[in-house]
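seq/struct pair 1
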Amino acid sequence: MPPRPSAETSPSPTVEAIAAAYLEAADGDSALAIRRIIQDALTDLCEAERRTLRRDRLISHGYVRGAFEARR
């Protein structure tokens, strides 16, 4: 299997578009743009983790409910 190109060597158009949008929103301040990108990524990661934990709890409750219904 051939190696995949790294993000550093061939960024996708989506990556370029996102980077350009953040840079434009930061009025060309690349340090501010990268901080905003990181902040947004961390926020999204935390939200994904929260949803995963919630889904796991719902699945666990479903198994427990199923066990109680089977005993009746």
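seq/struct pair 2
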Amino acid sequence: MTSSRDAVQAVETEKTLRRLIDRGYRFVHPRDADGEVLAVVGVRAHGTVIDVVRLEAEDDVLAIRMPADEADILEPRTQLWRSTGEMCSVIDELLSLGDKEYAPGSADTRGCWVPGEAGRAKWLMASA
């Protein structure tokens, strides 16, 4: 049986995820070798930056803003901003960043997601 607290939490989680979707985030679900989902990862490329939010649980969320030319968005070498903690507060912080850009004109966000093994996907930057 679901408690009223669990129901409220589920509604808040859904509202928070809807805010990300409304802002243009796309989601991937990295899996382990057995196909188990490790996390829910939202990605939004805009301007000269990429924002990534990794949700492992409602109280275990990581959000990062990085330059759009970052080679590995799941483990970026350069982080322009980073926050961890509970989902609602981390997402609030992330969305409050707005659409600030990094070194205008230095990177290009053209590219696409390509499917990989075991349900994984990788972002490939366009070369031309």
